[in-house]
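User: I've been trying to design a sequence by hand for this structure and keep getting stuck. Would you show me what you'd pick, starting by listing the structure so we're on the same page?

Assistant: Good idea, let's start from the same input. This is the structure you sent:
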């Protein structure tokens, strides 16, 4: 096994924000492989975030953003458990990034479970018809549709979208990272996006 040096620990800490002991253990478990150690720490962070997911989150901020020129405006409510974390710089940055994301990518829903049932049903019907027209065998149409519906979710659900500042990350990854760094449950409660001249339902 490769020797775990102080330099390796320092680099991994800088990349992940994890503690010294946690970082050293991850490197040891990964046999000194930097990328594997990053994955180990991310999985632990996600596990911790999942544990915190059930806790009440009634504090937070309402972040507002207006696109230069005033053509697009966004309001997003981001919740956490305490006023202390609501004032935390990483939490404030997350709220700002979410407002930018909503302005740029126009999601309609926060999460997959929020998608309107009628809209989802219509989308599934369209995708099935497309796959049938492409001459796909009946038995694999369902698999094709499931693959393509994930693209639909990435378009309309904020948590499933790729982050505009770093496309390797999804918005749900940003939430998980901030939960891991703050130690509190964090959730996007709701958002509204207005665009000048848009047709109202």
């Amino acid at each position: 096994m490769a020797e775990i040096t102080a330099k390796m620990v320092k680099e991994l800490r800088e990349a992940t924000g994890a503690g010294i002991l946690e970082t050293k253990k991850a490197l040891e478990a990964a046999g000194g492989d930097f990328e594997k150690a990053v994955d180990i720490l991310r999985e632990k962070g996600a596990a911790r975030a999942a544990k915190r997911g059930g806790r009440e989150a009634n504090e937070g901020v309402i972040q507002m953003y207006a696109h230069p020129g005033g053509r697009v405006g966004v309001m997003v409510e981001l919740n956490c458990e305490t006023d202390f974390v609501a004032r935390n710089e990483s939490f404030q940055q997350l709220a700002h990034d979410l407002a930018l994301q909503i302005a740029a990518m126009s999601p309609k829903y926060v999460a997959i479970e929020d998608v309107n049932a009628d809209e989802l049903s219509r989308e599934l019907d369209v995708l099935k018809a497309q796959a049938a027209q492409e001459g796909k065998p009946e038995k694999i149409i369902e698999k094709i549709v499931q693959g393509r519906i994930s693209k639909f979710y990435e378009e309309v659900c904020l948590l499933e979208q790729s982050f505009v500042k770093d496309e390797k990350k999804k918005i749900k990854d940003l939430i998980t990272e901030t939960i891991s760094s703050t130690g509190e449950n964090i959730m996007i409660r709701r958002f509204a996006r207005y665009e000048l001249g848009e047709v109202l339902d």
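That's my pick for every position. To get oriented when you compare it with your attempt: Residues 6-52 form a domain with the Helicase, Ruva Protein; domain 3 fold (CATH 1.10.8.10). The chain has a mean pLDDT of 86.
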